[in-house]
Design brief:
By secondary structure, this protein is α+β, with helices and mostly antiparallel strands. It is about 35% helix and about 20% strand. It has 20 helices and 21 strands.
């Protein structure tokens, strides 16, 4: 069903007066947009740069501009300088690898309005009239947005400090001047999402200490820079993403941006003939008040994010943590109850981390970050340890410090460096349950098994959820064996989007060809709750749970038990009738998505899974047929790699799977 058809259907379902009110409101809004477009075409939104001639921030940055020598010496001592300079050279020559593009040379002028993966360009016009998504072409608006976040600037700044080569400062200046010319306020695709305006603003501010004293950059540039930055604050405040059914990571980014801008500009305020521009002090007050509220809206009591995605948990935790630390550096503090909830967000990341230090990407993942202060070209999307390194210093937690020791550079730039840990190593990981978020982890010395069983994102809206109830990931002796398929893309390919979030590719049971939660082909961020998954029992070596996604469709309730055994795992699936009168046994199948590099072959009645240093025997009870099918897994947005999927068909109500290794 198309979005237009969906809107028509919803209008028909409304009472007549409500429908007429909605139509009238839409007409008034369109008239306002037309008038706004007319005004901007006659008089573009600008602030005279000379208004900022005397401006110099009095705020404290995340890192100390006066400690340049300390940072440089440490980077060289740890051997990071060559990687940083290599990445900066690629940036200067406009070679980028964004959202699965692969290394691509973008030419002398950066394509700010283009999905350079497909060549599609968005016209410069009033931002409210730009169609950012067209499911009938392959363009992905995230590509120009990602480039225009300027998260590569931090790497340019580090290279400038390391080498004192003015070419990096001049590249910083040239990119910004070009962007400001090519993206008039409210008149390009890079103004269509306030989240991206906010992240862009924060990244501009974060790198000021690197370049502010460059002799190559004239003061006139900084006047234009501050004029544009100020207008971005005005835009964010007037386009907050809090008007939908739920707030989420977009609104958190809006608030983070307003706080960063409010801190940076301080008491400075543009007065005169434009009273509606807003006041940075008000942005700061509003941002802090709302951020405190949003932490308790978006973060469950157990510390999990309510978008039901580990990747978005990481992004939201980063925005909350960095913003809270930025405030703290400037004498602004949140209450203890807020701080404890924020600390719990990082405890969750610590406890679900796999033995190899990576984290399963459950639900949606779009590679979103707030600030990228290390490894710009090589950060691993499933590695959350950079946040634990920073949180270890902020919360004075040695367990966080030890987990994040490999991400010391993040702690350097954001937290001022690493203090020595008072404990020699991490405690032995244990099985842990996060019922509010719907994550359960079974552990033994050899086994890591994460099980998904809980509410869909946004309390049942399902925007970033997949049909993955009772699905699991299995890691044995530090090696991935059975994995979540990932996300791959959003609107660039709606069929692939739906495949990667479908029941069929997750490690769970599918009854017939039914989805756990029904999907609309072209409604890519809606998955209304039908599963109501529930954990029945959890211990350090046992999980039992159920979901009701098939109950209204077929009268079936899926129950699953997972048990850790010595050198093995046992999975018992039961397809129970919701009412005693039912007796029909429906065909069903269990899926097991194998990690890349796992080889599978048949041996008598069993299957053998094999990889370097690993061999497992997989046996099924009550299987009618076992197929080895082609599968796909995605570790990065826009990238997929082939794998294999085991599909086990059954006509019984009971299926037992045993995985045993040497």
């Amino acid at each position: 069903m198309s979005s237009v058809q969906t809107q028509i259907r919803r209008l028909k379902e409304m009472p007549f007066r409500a429908a007429m009110k909605k139509i009238a409101g839409k007409a008034i809004q369109e008239a306002r947009f037309a008038y706004r477009q007319y005004r901007i075409s006659r008089s573009p939104i600008t602030l005279r740069p000379e208004l900022f001639r005397s401006f110099e921030t009095t705020s404290t940055f995340l890192f100390d501009p006066l400690s340049r020598e300390h940072y440089v010496n440490l980077l060289k001592k740890e051997g990071m300088d060559q990687e940083i300079i290599h990445d900066a050279e690629r940036i200067c020559t406009h070679v980028f690898d964004l959202l699965g593009s692969g290394e691509t040379s973008l030419g002398p002028s950066l394509p700010w309005h283009e999905d350079f993966k497909t060549g599609f360009r968005w016209d410069n016009k009033f931002y409210k009239w730009i169609k950012i998504v067209d499911l009938d072409n392959a363009a992905d608006v995230k590509v120009p947005w990602e480039l225009s976040r300027f998260q590569h600037f931090f790497t340019l700044g580090k290279a400038y400090w390391l080498t004192e080569d003015e070419k990096y400062a001049l590249e910083f200046q040239a990119q910004l001047e070009d962007w400001m010319i090519q993206n008039p306020v409210e008149m390009s695709v890079n103004w269509t999402c306030a989240m991206d305006v906010a992240i862009r603003s924060s990244n501009w501010i974060a790198v000021v200490p690197f370049f502010r004293k460059s002799p190559s950059i004239p003061e006139s540039f900084w006047e234009s820079f501050h004029s544009s930055l100020y207008l971005q604050g005005v835009f964010i405040r007037g386009n907050l993403e809090n008007t939908g059914e739920h707030t989420g990571n977009h609104y958190t980014a809006n608030l983070a941006g307003l706080i960063a801008l409010g801190i940076y500009f301080g008491s400075f305020n543009v007065q005169g003939n434009q009273p509606l521009l807003g006041n940075p002090a008000d942005w700061l007050t509003f941002g802090m008040d709302e951020m405190e509220k949003e932490l308790f809206v978006q973060v469950n009591e157990d510390g999990t994010n309510y978008e039901a995605s580990t990747s978005y948990h990481r992004l939201v935790a980063e925005m909350f943590l960095v913003t809270t630390m930025w405030c703290s550096r400037n004498g602004l503090h949140f209450p203890d109850v807020y701080m404890r909830r924020l600390e719990k967000m990082h405890e969750f990341m610590l406890h679900i981390m796999k033995p190899d230090g990576l984290t399963p990407l459950i639900g949606d993942a779009d590679d979103g970050r707030y600030l990228i202060v290390s490894r710009y070209s090589g950060w691993v999307r499933s590695d959350f340890r950079h946040l634990l390194a920073v949180a270890g210093e902020f919360f004075e937690r040695d367990d966080f410090r030890n987990a994040g020791i490999s991400s010391w550079e993040d702690a350097l730039w954001i937290a001022g460096g690493n203090k020595p840990s008072r404990i020699p190593e991490l405690d032995e990981p244990r099985s842990v349950a996060y019922p509010d978020g719907g994550y359960y982890v079974l552990r033994s010395p050899e086994i890591y098994c994460l099980i998904r069983c809980g509410e869909l994102s946004f309390h049942g809206h399902g925007a970033h959820s997949h049909n993955d109830q009772l699905s699991f990931e299995l890691n044995v002796k530090g090696k991935d064996i059975i994995v979540d398929p990932g996300t791959f893309v959003y609107s660039a390919d709606y069929r692939a989007r739906n495949l990667f979030r479908s029941t069929a590719v997750h490690n769970t049971i599918q009854v017939g060809d039914m989805e756990q939660n029904d999907m609309e082909d072209r409604n890519l961020f809606l998955l209304r709750e039908q599963t109501y998954a529930k954990c029945e029992l959890f211990s350090y070596e046992y999980f039992a749970g159920n979901h009701r996604g098939y109950e209204k469709k077929s009268g079936i309730i899926h129950r699953r038990e997972i048990m850790l055994k010595d050198s093995g795992l046992v999975i018992i699936d039961k397809l129970e009738h919701a009412t005693p009168a039912q007796s029909e046994v429906l065909p069903a199948s269990a899926a097991f998505m194998l990690a890349a590099g796992i080889r599978v072959y048949a041996d008598k009645r069993n299957l053998i899974l094999q990889a370097e240093g690993f061999k497992a025997i997989v046996a099924f009870e009550n299987a009618a047929e076992v197929q080895i099918q082609k599968g796909w897994i995605s570790k990065d947005y826009g990238v997929r790699e082939p794998s294999q999927l085991l599909r086990v068909y059954t006509h019984h109500q009971y299926l037992r799977t045993t995985i045993h290794w040497d």
